[in-house]
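Collaborator request, handled under Task 6.
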Amino acid sequence: MKLRKLNKFFFRLFIVICLVATSYPAFSEPVVKIAVGNFPPWVYMDGNDVRGADYDLIVKILDRMHIKYESEPMIFSDIIEGLKEGTVDISSGLFYREDRDKYIQYVSPPLRTRNMKGFYVLRSGNVHISKYNDLLGRRVAVCSGVRYFPVFDVDHRIEKVQTTSLEESLDLLLNKRVDVVASGLLLADSVISSLGMRDKVIRSDFVYNPRSAPSYLGISRKSFLLERSEELGAVLKLFQKNGEQERIMRKYLGADADKYLIK
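Structure tokens returned to the collaborator:
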């Protein structure tokens, strides 16, 4: 009799525990949202998979820190807005801008210190950009939210046509709605090849290639990841020293990795 009463007690206790447990949301670890733009070979979508030298490096870092992650594909202007509002946690390849420092924590050390920009024109056209001044008075397609280099960014003598992507910029060029497309070299060369445009579009002679133009991983100042930014930077530095970043970059860039590795 006593055993039966005891069993009933434990059964009722079990029911109470289950009811209490289901009354509260289950605890879950925070998940980092990695902003994914279309910037091959650094980060891009390959079908349903995310690839790229920067993306693989971020994943390695987060794995090392035992942090869960997911990817969030978006255009660049939405990436910047997402970092500002805290709807994404981290992005890569960001150049320091004072106005963005208010909502983006730039992680030290930088990912790389080279920032080569090229200007692309129609092979069959009569537009030739052999020096910076050749851009004056031209209609130049630029990706919205992207900063290229200081002089160009603020030069009102150049008519800049905002687009959402390099693909859109190239489409405007092919339809002769712009004279020139501005882009990072590796990005443009990759996209032009993938779209089969090498017979139609060519890079001009003028290339912006400063000695130093560092780009960074950027963390939203509204992200829970912010409190671990120094740890993240320390892991990045370790991967730069032990050759992990170099191995990842060579996977995507081959010999061109030498131009972007931090020595």
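The cover message to the collaborator said: "The longest helix spans residues 2-22. The radius of gyration is 24 Å. Please let us know whether this matches your experimental observations."
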